[in-house]
Amino acid sequence: MKIAVIVSSTRLSWSTRRLIAVLRSRGHHVLLINASDVALVADKGFEARIGPHRLDPDAVIVRSLGMNTSLEQFLSRLTVLAFLEEMGIPVINPWLPTLIARTKMLTTLFLAKAGIPVPPTLLTESLGVTLHYVREWGSVVFKPLTGSLGLGAFKADDIDTAYHVASMFLSFSRPVYMQAFIPKSGNSDKRVFVVGDSVVAAARRVAPPGEWKTNVARGGKVEPTTLDEEEERIAVKAVKALGLYYAGVDIARGTDDKLVVFEVNAMPNWRGLYRATGVDPAEHIARLLEGLAKRGGEE
């Protein structure tokens, strides 16, 4: 099969390089496509093109649409995915689930609607409303509305700190996305990697001493772990609630032992998870993509 791997830079992550290697080892022809190079044409039909050539792969996997894009760039690249889907090409992950997963409040909405436990969450452009909920919730975490790797997240333990952080966001015309801080049991969480209907691997991530962020990119230690029945069920349910084919789900138990879903990443990396568990999600993703292509994109 001819498989397009969509990226946003020539600097590929280890996980993307690994996925490409696995796809090639399984006999597929891999087209590495920078999202910014795709042109869309609507004229007596619609098609996607790379220069003079029509882009018509058998399947597409999206690894990155860019982290520091403008809104117009992001919507343009999202439209590329929509065009490819309308051309009958299986795309993982599809454009609408990708949008939902990329926008944290939409993620929270869809998870909560499915009955999945999430932290108390606020999205607002009002400083007064922000401070009202800081008083109600106590310690809070501010996050960019889009983003990953723990970048740009701030923890505020008092109203003065919260005031300054919220004011900073609003001064840059950014809405406030804020969650009640939930202390994690053992100062750790679990990254659960779901492909299709199954958990293929899971690892425990432990925050460095004195820190609260468990992200591997922020210095978190990764180690093997097991999941109980509830953790596995909730992780798979979270991926399905967002309409994703594969994702990394961050879950943890609070100090009250209640399970909470914190993040769902539609374009997860897995180098740390692979080192901790020996499980390579790339093989599972490749098999999923092959199955979708054979069925014409229908599950």
Automatic annotation (TrEMBL):
**One short Pfam family name for this protein?**
RimK
Gene3D superfamilies documented for this protein: 3.40.50.20, ATP-grasp fold, A domain (3.30.1490.20), ATP-grasp fold, B domain (3.30.470.20)
What is the protein's species of origin? Answer: Pyrolobus fumarii (strain DSM 11204 / 1A)
Using the record's annotation, list all stretches that form the ATP-grasp domain.
Answer: 108-290
Q: Which GO molecular function annotations are given, in alphabetical order?
A: ATP binding; ligase activity, forming carbon-nitrogen bonds; metal ion binding
Q: What are the alphabetically sorted keywords of the record? A: ATP-binding, Ligase, Magnesium, Manganese, Metal-binding, Nucleotide-binding, Protein biosynthesis
A single Gene Ontology biological process assigned to it is: translation
Q: Quote the protein name from its UniProt record.
A: Alpha-L-glutamate ligase, RimK family
Q: Which cofactor does it need?
A: Mn(2+); Mg(2+)
Q: Which InterPro entries match?
A: ATP-grasp, ATP-grasp_RimK-type, ATP_grasp_subdomain_1, PreATP-grasp_dom_sf, Rimk_N, Rp_bS6_RimK/Lys_biosynth_LsyX
What Gene Ontology terms describe where this protein resides (cellular component)? Answer: cytoplasm
Which SUPFAM superfamilies is this protein grouped with? Glutathione synthetase ATP-binding domain-like, PreATP-grasp domain
